Amino acid sequence: MVVALKIEHEESAYSTAIAQYNRATQHLTIDENIIEYLRYPRREFTVNFPVRRDDGKIEMFTGYRVHHNTVLGPSKGGIRYSANVTLDEVRALAMWMTWKCALVNLPYGGAKGGVVVEPKDLSLREIEQLTRRYASELIPVISPHMDIPAPDMGTNAQTMAWFMDTYSMTVGYSVPAIVTGKPINIGGSKGRTEATGRGVIICMEEALRAHGYNDASKTSLIIQGFGNVGSHAAAYADELGFKIVGVSDIYGGIYNEKGLDIDSVRAHMAETGSLEGYKDAVHLTNDELLIMPCDVLIPAAMEGQLTKHNAPDIKARIIVEGANGPTTTEADDILEDRGIFVVPDILANAGGVIVSYFEWVQDLQAFFWDEDEIFHQLRRILIRSYDATLRAAEDHDVNMRMAAQIVAIQRVAEAVQTRGFYP
Ligand code: NAD
User: Which numbered atom of ligand 1 lies nearest the CA of 192?
Assistant: First the structure.
């Protein structure tokens, strides 16, 4: 029997991605056939595979890998471990990766992967088994010249090490360039772990300058999510002297209008695994934190966090999207009406894929760069991309999200035009 009670669902990630695409293409004079072609993912894989649990029982897991587009080069994108992963979500994230890589001018297409699993419920051995089996299931569709995975929510450098080892043992020799975001001692790049968070702050500084904020110590930030992106964004912002008044993780948020001591927040997180019990701050729910007073809000947790329900109450004047797809289309409209400046995900969090690209280049050449070089090139590419987006926003009289999509879609469409449709 269908339960009569109907909960109002927020729009899905893929419908957000398609809605953004439809809006952006209205500003472009490109061939209708190309517009239609780019609406579709090129390939979608679903794999169901067994993992032996610690109690000896076999459990089946489902994983996905979607290649949205490969016109500009091999596809690139992270792998997410989460109980909520769906094919629809992975499809959206793959499409955003296509635009992100094109926007920052990397020779990549877009992909994304995910396994439906709550990593916290598995032991380290079980996670390793799951990763190795998922990697081996993907072998027909990944290679350093075809599709190059990386970490995302719920995965990390260790996950990538197991992934790389599984691929390497299968082909019979070491292939560091099969994944990025690896540990440095097996071909990872300096600066990769910090890259996304640092890039978010570089973009934030550009936005702040244009909006007349000149004193970091008087500029307050709230960061939602304290994982790879959020914690490194917090660390870099703290190093630059910004006042971080709020941070959160999946269990809730903390807020202190005078500014949080980020080193002690990090130490507390490292010690206890959550923000619970942290002193010197008011404890709030995630929903409450998003609408607390601040100059800049950085959603760095997951998609669909800024919705039509909370967008009217957000106090920040600038939003810099560390997460992928944190703002629904409806929220976007509300934020625009309210004059809130949004630096979109495909620009703001592109630091990760930029340094992933450096890692891949270093692996292919077996020649490694120092950290100064990496951070210098990261800043150069991000600022160039930020400026191109701002120019497009002015030229088309649109917001930064539309502008970023316009620049990216235009570049991919031109490449399709040049290559032509096969056969
Ligand atoms: P992570 O797993 O390291 O951290 C996620 C953080 O968000 C954790 O602190 C978790 O507790 C918190 N969180 C999860 N669900 C939440 C919720 N409902 N409310 C509040 N907090 C919640 O993941 P990450 O790698 O930092 O990725 C975060 C986001 O950034 C994702 O959208 C991801 O796709 C995007 N992203 C990551 C990278 C990267 O290099 N890691 C690059 C680009 C974009």
Answer: 40
